């Protein structure tokens, strides 16, 4: 596959508001989107609906795409992660044209007999990004041997914007002339990057190992690696993944991500979020015995605050609480914290 | 399967010194061992070799066992966790007799065509205890809703004796008249208990969920549940599992396990163990946002100390460092710390 892929992104009946994976890939990936496939919006263009991503035509099916395509990417996910049979004609058309298919569903397209047969017949590859490759194993504690500085986004909770903050920081660092790489750990991040291990899907004993493997692979290609964090260190269900990423990455610097106004764990309303300084202490003291890490900056998701001035105040208060620079990397300028993160190089 | 199983334990060429799983099951399980199978020691008895476990005859093959058997348990593991073909006649003889087979190998006996066929033909079950059942999912944060008090063993490192300490504490608590249950999390613990989830083998996102499922299942059957811990919260490779067990169990009390003289992480000699008080702070501060837990006692493995007086001194120093009662539950009396652990009920 070429470095920059030409993507067709399937988002039937859900573009743009219920197609978060599609938007994430269109916004942050180096790949080019040549068409969005949505039967409800066919005939319009992306910019008729949203200007937060590059423009592209919207078509009703894969076979209506005129341009050359390297991969068909499934950019939506039904609740439960199943495969919607109404997408089958698009997937078969792509495979018959020798075009790769990228999916992050729980249902593995590789295990679908028709798709597997077509892929083999036409020399196309199916990438189920949620399926870990079989070589992932136990961490050896070697992530600190790479040349790159490692920056990890950590969170106060799930769904506070760690992946978005990570992508914004990579882009801002590159704009500042820094050779920055992105290390994905979840399905949308993997689709954006075009590679990566689904750290939340590997065997629990291999959590740190799945991260270490990626860092050892990319560690000498960039000056700074931004690792996408997952969950939160005090999450009742997902803290194991968070802890494995913290120790597996042996991060040098941490960026604490939070959503303004979030007071309890999302979906676990009995569990209150601790104060921000407690998160700073917890992440730093837990990291230290394996590799010293410092919370150097914060990314605050202010989407629930309407007023820009109020959002700016919230960002400043957040920075005071964590003892570093802070911004909302989507609403304001991520460059505001890039210096603090990589300035000491 | 009956509550107390009659076991035949396979330990060819390795009993007793290189058969740790066999010895663990014989020492701590409620099951009765009717025979050990070891072709090198055939004709002798267990007590000719060790008096740390109940006596039993040693035979050369499964077909030489006179008594009735409920299950054949594989009590040894070659490096790598493979299946040794020299064991095949014993496994087939057991299955042909309708006897269940219990194994903790990486090689799943259920996926061996001959074994699967024989098991189906003769109504025997194969339990690959390292294979998680497919229903394990995300934790719901409900372990604190059970009636039982939850005591979790946590460690300064891997292989410091957490499973042994947990089993000794369960036995000592029962001797003190306490209705205590054992919640296993690893393969030997599962073989001892005859049930349980291999927490280190589940999907990383389900680590806490695999523990919670067990606690919800057993939570109303006992007054105190002793949960077997894994790894260490500062282990470069395995901390994810440790963290998932800590939050998934929502433990009330923690017992810190350590091996006297251990100064660096086993197998990761670049990583020094932090001081004992730092472990106490880390475990308690990490647990608190999900469920308050207190390190109330310590279990020190003193097997590397020859002299009993020196071992006693090491135990007392360890207790001082962690701020609670301490013992070596194998060398001395586990009852020494049981009061401190469950005394407040």
From TrEMBL, chains A, B:
Residue intervals of the D-glutamate N-acetyltransferase-like N-terminal domain: 40-132
UniProt xrefs under InterPro entries: DgcN-like, DgcN-like_C, DgcN-like_N, P-loop_NTPase
A Pfam family the protein falls into: DUF1611
Highest rank taxon of the organism: Archaea
Residue intervals of the D-glutamate N-acetyltransferase-like C-terminal domain: 138-338
Protein name in UniProt: Uncharacterized conserved protein, NAD-dependent epimerase/dehydratase family
């Amino acid at each position: 596959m070429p470095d920059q892929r030409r993507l067709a992104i399937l988002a039937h009946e859900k573009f743009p508001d219920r197609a978060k994976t599609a938007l994430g890939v269109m916004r942050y990936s180096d790949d080019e989107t040549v068409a969005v496939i949505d039967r409800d919006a066919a005939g319009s263009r992306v910019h008729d609906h949203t200007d937060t991503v590059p423009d592209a035509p919207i078509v009703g099916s894969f076979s209506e795409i005129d341009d050359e395509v390297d991969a068909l990417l499934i950019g939506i996910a039904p609740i439960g992660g199943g495969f919607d049979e109404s997408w089958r004609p698009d997937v078969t058309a792509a495979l018959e044209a020798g075009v790769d298919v990228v999916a992050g569903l729980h249902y593995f397209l590789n295990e679908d007999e028709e798709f597997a047969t077509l892929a083999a017949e036409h020399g196309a590859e199916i990438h189920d990004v949620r399926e870990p490759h079989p070589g992932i194993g136990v961490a050896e504690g070697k992530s600190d041997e790479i040349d790159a500085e490692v920056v990890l986004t950590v969170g106060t909770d799930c769904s506070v914007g760690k992946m978005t903050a990570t992508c914004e920081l990579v882009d801002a660092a590159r704009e500042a002339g820094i050779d920055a790489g992105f290390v994905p750990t979840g399905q949308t991040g993997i689709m954006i990057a075009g590679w990566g291990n689904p750290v939340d899907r590997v065997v629990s004993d291999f959590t740190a190992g799945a991260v270490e493997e990626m860092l050892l692979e990319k560690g000498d290609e960039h000056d700074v690696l931004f690792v996408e964090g997952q969950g939160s260190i005090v999450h009742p269900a997902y803290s194991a993944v968070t802890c494995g990423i913290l120790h597996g990455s042996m991060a040098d610097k941490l960026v604490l991500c939070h959503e303004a106004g979030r007071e309890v764990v999302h979906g676990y309303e009995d569990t209150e979020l601790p104060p921000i300084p407690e998160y700073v202490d917890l992440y730093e003291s837990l990291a230290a015995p394996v590799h010293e890490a410092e919370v150097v900056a914060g990314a605050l998701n202010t989407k629930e605050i309407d007023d820009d001035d109020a959002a700016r105040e919230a960002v400043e208060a957040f920075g005071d609480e964590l003892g570093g620079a802070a911004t909302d990397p989507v609403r304001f300028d991520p460059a505001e914290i890039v210096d603090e993160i990589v300035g000491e190089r």
